[in-house]
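Exercise 7b. Backbone tokens:
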């Protein structure tokens, strides 16, 4: 293990020797760096990058509180321990409230090594906590991507069918033109249709790629109308193939929301896919009641402006006995080949990260409504 580097701010060589002797007696392995004034102290912090700082409280041309302030600015995570001979109760409280790690009186140096061990233990615990948080974040990211792949699988067949139609039309139009039997006006009309079909494909592909992109970007203002329009474009063909009627009730003048667009598209698509499954379960074939409703309207919550997006289906509903479990990771009522149980769990995690709220109400064999509440920008 590499020896720690200790920076000592001390003007008394005798006191410094006593401090270092106490550390040696405690079996502490370290590399000493000794300074006596402000200039030396600043240079040592910059050049030596100490692991610990030990400082006297009072020095002839410098003081410990100023040294502490500099340390908090230049190296805020470096533990700072006062070792002083003049140290009243008020001074002790002041140094701790300003961010000192600990303090030890010079006539009680026996407490120095325990204070150091305590500080090292706190550093190790903090590092372990940071590692655990990083691992948790990485697992959540993996779950989100796994769920996104699952959602993409639901869409793949429907999207392929939707893209295939305009491609076949383009091929047919191109064959007509290639025969050279059409007059210029007819060629112009067919060329316009080819352009229209190509743009239709482009829009679908762009929306799908936006959803599929692995997003770690910043929060940006996004139009609620644009969000719903994009997710509709992605899911529209699956609804058509399931013979589901979609109703949209969204004011184009709604304010924007601050979000990671790709992640919120994922949440909305999860809710829509669940609604499609519920409708197909209740109505395997066409039915005039087989419909989904998406609406967005302003709400006032706690005196602040919010927007509520509601995704409603008139499908099989959520039985009361499982209502408390639907947001649990890997919980699913679908077969193993139809779902992993990640959709709602991941969606809730994304919504919480945004500081929003996701809730629902349901009546078995009547309806299910999911509510996404988000603050307006």
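Sequence design result:
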């Amino acid at each position: 293990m590499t020896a720690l580097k200790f920076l000592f701010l001390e003007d008394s060589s005798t006191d410094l020797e006593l401090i270092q002797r106490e550390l040696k007696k405690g079996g502490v392995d370290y590399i000493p760096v000794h300074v006596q004034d402000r200039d030396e102290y600043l240079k040592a912090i910059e050049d030596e990058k100490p692991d610990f700082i030990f400082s006297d409280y009072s020095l002839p041309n410098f003081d410990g509180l100023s040294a502490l302030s500099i340390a908090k600015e230049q190296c805020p995570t470096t533990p700072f321990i006062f070792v002083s001979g003049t140290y009243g109760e008020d001074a002790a409280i002041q140094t701790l409230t300003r961010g000192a790690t600990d303090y030890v009186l010079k006539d009680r140096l026996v407490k120095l090594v325990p204070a150091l061990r305590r500080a090292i233990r706190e550093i190790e615990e903090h590092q372990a906590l940071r590692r655990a948080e990083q691992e948790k974040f990485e697992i959540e990211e993996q779950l989100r991507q796994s769920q996104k792949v699952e959602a993409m699988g639901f869409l793949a067949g429907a999207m392929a069918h939707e893209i295939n139609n305009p491609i076949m039309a383009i091929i047919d139009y191109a064959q007509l033109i290639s025969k050279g039997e059409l007059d210029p006006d007819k060629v112009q009309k067919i060329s316009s249709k080819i352009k229209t079909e190509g743009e239709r494909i482009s829009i679908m592909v762009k929306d799908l790629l936006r959803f599929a992109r692995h997003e770690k970007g910043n929060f940006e203002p996004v139009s609620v109308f644009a969000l719903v329009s994009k997710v509709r474009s992605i899911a529209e063909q699956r609804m058509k193939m399931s013979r589901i009627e979609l109703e949209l009730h969204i004011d184009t003048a709604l304010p924007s929301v601050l979000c990671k667009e790709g992640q919120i598209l994922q949440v909305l698509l999860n809710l829509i896919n669940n609604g499609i499954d519920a409708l197909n379960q209740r109505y395997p074939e066409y039915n005039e009641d087989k419909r989904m409703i998406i609406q967005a309207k302003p709400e006032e919550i706690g005196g602040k402006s919010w927007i509520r997006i509601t995704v409603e289906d008139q499908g099989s509903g959520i039985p009361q006995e499982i209502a408390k479990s639907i947001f649990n990771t890997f919980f699913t009522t679908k077969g193993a080949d139809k779902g992993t149980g990640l959709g709602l769990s991941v969606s809730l995690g994304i919504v919480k990260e945004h500081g929003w709220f996701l809730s629902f109400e349901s009546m078995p064999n009547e309806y299910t409504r999911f509510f996404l509440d988000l603050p307006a920008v």
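Instructor comment: The radius of gyration is 33 Å. Residues 4-100 form a domain with the Rossmann fold fold (CATH 3.40.50.2300).
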